[in-house]
Amino acid sequence: MSSQDIPEENVPAERASDDHAGHGHGPVALADEQNPFADPGLPPHEHRIQDIDERAARRSERLVALLFVLSMVATVGFIASYVAIPNDKSVYIFPLGHISALNFALGMCLGVALFSIGAGAVHWARTLMSDVEIADERHPIEAAPEVKAKVLADFKDGARESALGRRKLIRNTMFGALALFPLSGVMLLRDLGPLPGTKLRHTLWSKGKLLVNMNTNEPLRPSDVAVGSLTFVKPEGLEEHDEDFQKEIAKAALMIIRLQPEDIKDKQELEWSYQGIVAYSKICTHVGCPISLYEQQTHHALCPCHQSTFDLSDGARVIFGPAGHALPQLQIGVNAEGYLEALSDFKEPVGPAFWERG
């Protein structure tokens, strides 16, 4: 339907005024022999059905709102799928075969949520927002005050013509869809790793666990540890062929050093040692590197990654480097058979600090 076929009384006031205004461009230069490429101007504006039929406009409004609501439902489905579907569950999808049910559900929900927001915005713009063609002359980069005033006026006109204030159903559902959708990204943060619970606060060490030499795989007696020596040990029962060996040794790795009792400055360190044999976590409290360097004369242990230095004669406190706190000490003793054993687990978490650490 062309604009000539539309009765004047059926055309909205703002549309009629735009048509009579010539769409914002000046007189059109006609082509002639001297200027064959003159600007032909804009064609006559053709009104959409939504411009002349409020019932059609209402249908478009409901369709846009439906798409935004669908996006909201898909976002809720994304969150529900993430919580409810197990990681190891699979589903058969033709022609893909067996795939992860969780990944499929998350992908579908995320895709529908994004598509619905985009489709709703496009349909809104194509059917309800103003589509009057306007030609404007180019102007210098530095705008004159009257141009700035015109831009502000155009912006206000655009906001008015978008019908955002008048089409409250679209406005509210759009805000709802845009507010809910970022929750999908927040939920993805959960995949940074499983919640640790109390795993960071406990190791395999417990009362009665023997100290086993990492090199010989034999339990240690006090006589096996010479003054000034450094020995790496593991808990009794932890073997290298175990499936979770790496995970457990990353927390339970221990180093024992024998000092002269009179060289130990820290009272707790002396009480938790046995005849000058002290046991400390081997895991650096900076980023978790294994400590492997020991200075016999100074009783200093050094982390090779970032040179954090700990004084093993003074509670393993940090004397240099970026480490945040001292190495945790393991309280040790000797059992009835004369072997070194742990008297408890570490009293504090080993390794780097974390948010919930007290």
Automatic annotation (TrEMBL):
Its main location: membrane. InterPro entries: QcrA_N, Rieske_2Fe-2S, Rieske_2Fe-2S_sf, Rieske_Fe-S_prot. Residues 1-46 are annotated as: Disordered. GO terms for cellular component: plasma membrane. Pfam families: QcrA_N, Rieske. Residues 246-341 form the Rieske domain. The chain crosses the membrane at residues 63-85, 105-125, 169-189. The keyword Oxidoreductase applies. PROSITE patterns: RIESKE. The cytochrome bc1 complex is composed of a cytochrome b (QcrB), the Rieske iron-sulfur protein (QcrA) and a diheme cytochrome c (QcrC) subunit. This is Cytochrome bc1 complex Rieske iron-sulfur subunit. It comes from Streptomyces populi. The lineage of its organism: Bacteria, Bacillati, Actinomycetota, Actinomycetes, Kitasatosporales.
